[in-house]
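Here is the promised in-class demo. Please do not try to memorize the tokens; focus on the logic of going from shape to residues.
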């Protein structure tokens, strides 16, 4: 029951963090962080799919907590690895958000002037926020390892990759040579 409780606590922390992040970002900068809502249909679709996938992860965790859903087999080494992935991914996710400062958005924002963030974690990955999210999802998948969690993880990978490619085109247009120089120096994820 310890693993189930830890995952449920993680889920609550993640949801509270995201809600607080969006609320306080909007209050501080008077900018809607849900920029994808004003984007093209394709962008909206990618983000709604992303939220749906995260919702499915939440449902899997709740079902796991209730004893309805769980791993195909138990392995202490996979569990330890999963916990480490969740912790590292969450830390990277939160720090990356903080390092983006006023430039953070979910989706592309044509309305607001932003800066291209290329320092700290962004010096090593062009997308540390997404990388942190992927690492967390991988950790959850290791803890609740079965065919469903693997499929959901693969869907998250594909969808995140499509979002990153869409944002790359936007950044190339918005920042021109500055972004192209950065893109040639720093890899997409790691």
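The designed amino acids, position by position:
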């Amino acid at each position: 029951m310890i693993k189930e409780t830890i995952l449920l606590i993680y889920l609550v922390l993640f949801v509270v963090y995201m809600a607080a992040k969006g609320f306080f970002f909007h209050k501080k900068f008077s900018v809607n962080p849900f920029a994808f809502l004003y984007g093209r249909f394709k962008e909206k679709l990618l983000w709604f799919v992303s939220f749906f996938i995260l919702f499915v992860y939440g449902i899997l965790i709740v079902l796991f907590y209730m004893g309805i859903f769980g791993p195909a087999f138990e392995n202490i080494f996979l569990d330890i690895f999963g916990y480490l992935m969740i912790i590292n991914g969450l830390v990277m996710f939160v720090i990356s958000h903080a390092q983006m400062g006023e430039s953070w958005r979910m989706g592309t924002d044509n309305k607001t002037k932003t800066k291209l963030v290329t320092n700290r974690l962004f010096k090593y990955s062009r997308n540390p926020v997404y990388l942190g999210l992927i690492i967390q999802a991988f950790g959850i998948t290791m803890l609740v390892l079965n065919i469903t969690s693997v499929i959901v993880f693969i869907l998250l990978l594909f969808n995140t990759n499509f979002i990153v490619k869409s944002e790359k085109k936007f950044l190339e247009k918005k920042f021109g040579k500055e972004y192209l120089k950065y893109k040639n120096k720093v890899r997409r994820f790691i």
